[in-house]
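Chapter review: from sequence to fold.
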Amino acid sequence: MKRGTSIQLGCFGLAAAAAAAAVATIAAQQPPVSPPQAAAQPATPPNSYMPVTVTEEFGVVMNRMEADKPSVMARQESLLKQRYDLSDRPAQGVTQFRGKPLQEGVRALLPAGMSWARLSEMTPDEIRARNMFPAGFLPLPHVNQPVGGMVFPKFEIDELKKQENRDLTRFDLDFDLPERFLPEFPPPMFLTTRPDLGDVSKGRLITIDNFFETFNGILNPKDLDGLRLLLTPFPQQQFNMTNDRNTVRPHRGVACFDCHANGHTNAAFHLVGDIRPEASRHRIDTVSLRGVNIQRLFGSQRGLKTVEDFTEFEQRAAYFDGDHVIATKKGVNVLDRGLQVHHMAEVQELLDFPPAPKLRIDGKLDPKKASAAEMRGQAVFFGKGTCASCHAPPYYTDNLMHNLRTERFFKPQMINGRLANQDGPIKTFALRGIKDSPPYLHDGRLLTLDDTVEFFNLVLELKLNDQEKRDLVAFMRAL
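The token string follows.
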């Protein structure tokens, strides 16, 4: 482990406590001439806490981590190239809402000599024993798993620099996935209360600089205040004013909508705050806030029961990797539950899915508007694919959590500092508007909808044929 990551490693509970001094022992029955025998070195005890006191100058740590950055990024780039086909292959005749091309095709690479058809005929035990589970289906590690923290795509960084003169650049690492696999930016923004307005963002990234002029006369005063708070930067673990930050200059912090751009997502990622040790923490891709009003669980695994709980948890705990002690040092923003949290939650519950002109009121396709492939895909979705058992219409979620038990298919292994063993229960994400939210699964390991279909075909042992897979993708693009 490089010494340059020492401060951050401690922040996530990996820093070891000082080992106890070896104690010389001599058995009573041994003759006096026998040499003393050193006691066994005790194992490093687990530690959930971050160090509060930094013992090195900030400049020394920053210079060391900047020097390490090229090797950190090269290691992640190598992993991505080993896992995926990252070429630019846009789908024909289908785009995201504002016109950004969708990437198509299964991008997870197969082991040498294997085909998807042959793989789907193997049992989970066979796949595990022969190490044939595609690397692109394994958990995706953070760019620098031992360090972790929020990482933003370049387009978000550039726009916030332009509008607010606030810089979300980290000196130790960069975003890893190519932009072609990310949501369009800025994403459109829809309100359940004003569907007649369409995209209320009018093609702009909504920030603290322009929200009032955009929404005055559309939102009520309470919701305007809630939107203000969602756009206000507050201190966060990597972006703050202390000397154990990851920015060159002291920083005001991050805002909720820095990740949930325009109430949607820009694919910024983080590590979940509620798992220790650091190697076991899951990368978490920013989920869209569209359709929050119909959801009953919040957080990929935490199962928070209200959006108010989620909003308060994010500010008080997730922003600081679940450590309330370090949060006090770095400047936790304690929100008033009955006033501020309530206002912020109300705004989030106004965020709507994009229009889906081919869907009927019940969420299913209108046969007069849908293509033959989409109709066939719908039949697979509700039939052989068993997708609707979890993703029920009209919003295509059951508001529950499910454990896919992917560990049936692979042996535990370390991947760039990430212990890939079990995913555990993950909430069922809504599929309405899903084509606008790449990449997929909770950690973004699936780059396209084609990858998603192939993943579930394997994990659920569905044995879909190639035509059924293509039709299922066509159906999901229409949702």
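Two observations follow directly from the output. The longest helix spans residues 58-83. Residues 391 and 397 are 4 Å apart (CA to CA).
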